[in-house]
Write a structure and sequence with these properties.
Blueprint lengths: L23 H14 L17 E6 L5 H12 L3 E6 L11 H9 L5 E6 L4 H6 L5 E7 L5 H15 L6 E5 L6 H12 L3 E5 L15 E3 L2 H7 L2 E4 L15 H8 L3 H4 L7 E3 L12 H4 L6 H20 L7
Parallel strand pairs: 1-2, 1-3, 3-4, 5-6, 5-8, 6-7, 8-9
Helix pairs in contact: 1-5, 1-11, 2-11, 5-6, 5-11
GO molecular function, one term: aspartate carbamoyltransferase activity
Function: Catalyzes the condensation of carbamoyl phosphate and aspartate to form carbamoyl aspartate and inorganic phosphate, the committed step in the de novo pyrimidine nucleotide biosynthesis pathway.
Protein name: Aspartate carbamoyltransferase
């Protein structure tokens, strides 16, 4: 598919706050657009004028490497003007409220706000109060929609179709925004989803979701076509969730020894950053079954697609 062929269909919301309730057709449209835009990343001159004149602010209140750099690169590839905000050294440290910060930035005639915040619901809060397009780059342990979209793009590229695919999300589910967005997105596209991890790291009410839940990593490995291995988010955890990191690795760590027991080796995914030797063994992370770096590449394409569809849906991509 070429960029010129992706046009004409708009998303039902002018914001991307999460994947909850998003129809599978819209998710597929974002993935189709990302597939088309990915071609730009392989050109000798990796830049198109699609968002020339559009100003984007990256409003990050939490540390980030992959997501922030991915959004910045996506914005530059599309010729948008961008501003980067960091909590450190800003007026927030002087007592300025989130809303005052956002409204003052918007007063500089911003078109799109990409926001990451430690509190769930902040993107929706800003969407109700600002005129700019709001894109959720991760809000607490709630959602991380663009990460789930790039995960699904990677799965689609490897398997051809997501419908009927068996995907196990493994690890610290309770503190993960990636897990929830993946559940919503994968189910909308017809995949089967399993959550696997210690009972202490499962979200409350997980059994009520239309998914499988298990606490045996070997069962998850033998069931799944793909494993999405989550990082232990120690910075969000209080004491008492785990006896020790060593015991977690022994019980739930993804190792080659475990994978080789399966009838068929599953695809290995990880949203990063990885705790090597904790949730995943280096031999697995660096193996030919791992698509971790493909996920990173696809992240730029997905964020380009979201920016285009939300801020310039009528533009013919060239």
């Amino acid at each position: 598919m070429t960029p010129e062929r992706v046009k004409g269909q708009e998303l039902s919301s002018r914001h991307l706050l999460g994947l909850e309730g998003m129809p599978g057709e819209e998710i597929s449209h974002i993935l189709d657009t990302a597939d088309a835009l990915k071609e730009i990343l392989d050109r000798p001159i990796k830049k198109v004028p699609t968002l020339r004149g559009v100003t984007v602010v990256n409003l990050f209140f939490e540390p980030s490497t992959r997501t922030r750099l991915s959004f910045e690169l996506a914005e530059k590839r599309l010729s948008a003007d961008l501003m980067n905000f960091s909590k450190t050294g800003s007026s927030v440290s002087k007592g300025e409220t989130l809303l005052d910060t956002a409204q003052n930035i918007e007063a500089m005639r911003i078109d799109v706000v990409v926001v990451r915040h430690q509190c769930p619901g902040v993107p929706g809060f800003l969407a109700d109060r600002l005129n700019s397009v709001i894109i959720n780059a991760g809000d607490g342990a709630h959602e991380h929609p663009t990460q789930a979209l790039l995960d699904m793009l990677t799965l689609r590229q490897k398997f051809g179709d997501i419908k009927g695919l068996k995907v196990a999300i493994v690890g610290d589910i309770a503190h993960s925004r990636v897990a929830l967005s993946n559940i919503y997105g994968l189910k909308a596209l017809g995949a089967e989803v399993m959550l696997c991890g210690p009972p202490t790291l499962m979200p409350r009410g997980a059994e009520s979701l239309p998914i499988k839940v298990c606490h045996d990593i070997d069962e998850a490995i033998s069931w799944a076509d793909a494993l999405n291995v989550l990082r232990l988010q120690l910075e969000r955890q209080k004491s008492g969730f785990l006896p020790s990191l060593r015991e977690y690795h022994m019980t739930f760590g993804i190792t080659m020894k475990r994978l080789e027991k399966a009838a068929e080796m599953p695809l290995i995914m990880h949203p990063g950053p990885m705790n090597r030797g904790v949730e995943i063994e280096s031999a697995v992370a660096d193996s030919g079954h791992s698509v971790v770096l493909d996920q990173v590449t696809n992240g730029v394409a997905v964020r380009m697609a979201v920016l285009v569809l939300l801020s310039a849906p009528e533009v013919k991509l060239t």
